[in-house]
Amino acid sequence: MIEFTGERVIPGQVEPDLWNEHYGRYLFAARLARGKRVIDLGCGSGYGSHELAQTATSVAALDIDPEAVAYARQHFQRENLSYLTASCEDVPLPDGSADLVIAFELIEHLHSPERLLTEAKRLLAPGGQFIVSTPNRAYYATSRTEPNPYHLNEMDQNGFQQALEETFPHVTLFTQNHVSALLFQPLEAPAATSLRLDPHPAGSENAHFYLAVCAQAPQVGSPNFLYVPAAANVLGERERHIRKLQGELATKQQWLDQTLSEHQALVEQHRQQLEQLEAANQWATERNRQYEEKAAHVAALEQQLTETRTHIVGYQTEIARLEQRQQELQQTLETTQRQQTELATTLDAKVAELARCVELLHQAEAELDSRTQWALTLDTEKQALQERLAQAKASRWVRLGRALHLGPDLKP
């Protein structure tokens, strides 16, 4: 079973005034539905379509909500009444299939109201009429504390009439209002009703709702229609309203007394909190003084830390320089050691070569001594030979042979 959500009317689940304003529109339309093919767009729970079907030839009722259509089929049935689940902007019925199209409290729910009007025009046979209603934005803007979340395009009188006249050249506009009335009704046999209706003193711009009968051809007549429901006892409604307000007032008074008691408790609690706050402030003042002292000490420590960090940076720089110098010295030492190794190798080669030279020198000295002895021997032999040569030269025989050019030439 569907429930009343605040927008769609469900019989038996709404206040009498809300029911009457919705049901009364269908009673207004029923006068024009007699003997006609009717299409009810946005039929909701189906109570209005059921009312129209009493006098209409046929009624096709459409709603986009499958749950609402299922409820209507279950609770409001007639042989000449059928239900369809469909959008009012795309009705699955042929052109010209209706003499009367109805769309009550539907146009304000659409993103594109003109699509509804175009579809209604398509569905109407020649001479057909379109009945449409909408709440007056100007009235409900002052009577509601919050906007209706279901409404996308609320209109005032001028906006509503202009939108309709863009599609239908002939528009007859009606206002719908809750009115106070005095009903004099006999208790016995019913009699003819005499009606006196005074002009609306506030004007049409303050109407609760607007209802329009639209057509492609001129229309004749636009009589007033007054619906006096049995549940519309104004005094009774006012008394119920007064009792409701009294109950709300008693609840509010109870709430006020409770609030006052809570307020007094809060005042006492506030006083205690002030005392606690004062003590806390004194404690905080002492803590602030201690904090300032410690902050000064911390500042001094931070200054010392900054200086220490400066020294550390200098030490680190000097250490880096010394490490660089050590690396250079290490490289120099390694180079020197390599050179010493190479020099030692060279010296070993030189020593070996010098030893060879000494050995050769010794051999040369020995050879020299031998040759010296040989030379001395030669000198001795030379002197002996020279002496013998001298003797030979001094010999008479030799001189004689030289004179005779005989004998060896003894010239040195």
Summarize the structure.
The protein is of the alpha/beta class and 412 residues long. The protein has a domain at 16-179 and 202-227: Vaccinia Virus protein VP39 (Rossmann fold, 3-Layer(aba) Sandwich), CATH 3.40.50.150. It has 8 helices and 7 strands.
Q: Can you offer a commentary on this structure?
A:
This protein is an alpha/beta fold. The protein has a domain at 16-179 and 202-227: Vaccinia Virus protein VP39 (Rossmann fold, 3-Layer(aba) Sandwich). It has helices at 16-33, 47-52, 66-75, 113-123, 137-143, 157-165, 234-394, 396-403, and strands at 37-41, 58-63, 81-85, 98-103, 124-135, 170-176, 209-215. The chain has a 7-stranded mixed β-sheet, with helices on both faces. It is elongated. The N and C termini lie far apart (170 Å).
The mean pLDDT is 84
**Uncertain parts:** none
Number of extended strands: 7
Query: How much strand?
Result: 5-15%
Main features:
412 residues; alpha/beta; Rossmann fold; seven-stranded mixed beta sheet; 8 helices
List strands and helices in order, with pairings.
Blueprint: H1 16-33, E1 37-41, H2 47-52, E2 58-63, H3 66-75, E3 81-85, E4 98-103, H4 113-123, E5 124-135, H5 137-143, H6 157-165, E6 170-176, E7 209-215, H7 234-394, H8 396-403
Parallel strand pairs: 1-2, 1-4, 2-3, 4-5
Antiparallel strand pairs: 5-7, 6-7
